[in-house]
Amino acid sequence: MIVSDVQKKVNQKIQKNVRIKICGITSVADALIAIDAGADAIGLVFYEPSPRCVSIEQAHAIAQAVGPFVTVVALFVNADKATIENVLQQVPIHLIQFHGNESAEFCEQFARPYLKALRMREDIDLEEVIHRFTSAAGILLDAYTPGLPGGTGETFDWKRVPSDSTRPIILAGGLTPENIREAVLQTNIYGVDVSGGVERAPGIKDALKIQSFIRSAN
Asked: Considering the domain boundaries, does residue 10 fall inside one?
């Protein structure tokens, strides 16, 4: 079967496109800016020490505003079962992102697909850890800073990103409109996750940065 040049170009474009999550959304306005710019998912942070943490009321309003074809992700860091269940009962969440030391058994009990975030310590056995989370919808790789679960604004060596993982890989950590294209070209990733890199202040997104980030990612 001969594949036309047009079809080849279409296939190449499909292969290169990465899914984009804008995390740390704190307002309906910022959520709509992200969606209008082409984001596939938005992230709502339920971790009180974060400047991007949202209340149940904020999260509900944002989730209701983005429409049915946008993935709404709830981010937790070592939260207890009751806290997570309370959010899920009140907010239409599609996907959970576990950003702490949660076990696979803990992550599996909420009747939602989940992402497991891994911080890229120098001594991490990435293949072994990913193998523990075969039930995860995807694995998110973030930079490692002692004492901080994420949102550091730091990158890690993208050469460490596996090219043949058994789970879809989402890249995070220090991504910006200026470096996202290089990150995509250097890695074979399913998606990217950005928060501080598209903000004008913690928790307040910048429309131009979001638009530039999404253009450069694809």
From this structure: no
User: In 43-53, which positions are buried (b, 16+ CB within 10 angstroms) versus exposed (e)?
Assistant: bbbbbeebebb
Q: Which of 30, 36, 107, 142 is catalytic?
A: 142
pLDDT at 38 over 70: yes
143-189 per-position pLDDT tens digit: 877 666 655 678 889 999 998 888 999 999 999 999 999 999 999 89
CA–CA dist 105, 74 (Å, integer) = 18
Residue 189's domain is classified under what CATH number? Answer: 3.20.20.70
Average pLDDT, the chain: 90
- The whole-number pLDDT of residue 54 equals 98
Number of domains in the chain: 1
Q: What angle do helix axes 81-90 and 56-65 make, rounded to 10 degrees?
A: 40
Task: Please give the structure tokens belonging to residue 151.
Answer: 């949102």
Is residue 131 situated within a structural domain?
yes
Question: Which pLDDT value is given to residue 7?
Answer: 41
Please say if 107 is a catalytic residue.
no
Q: Which of 23, 30, 107, 193 is catalytic?
A: 23
Active site residue 142: yes
Domain that residue 61 falls in: 17-217
47 in a structural domain: yes
User: Does residue 11 sit within a domain?
Assistant: no
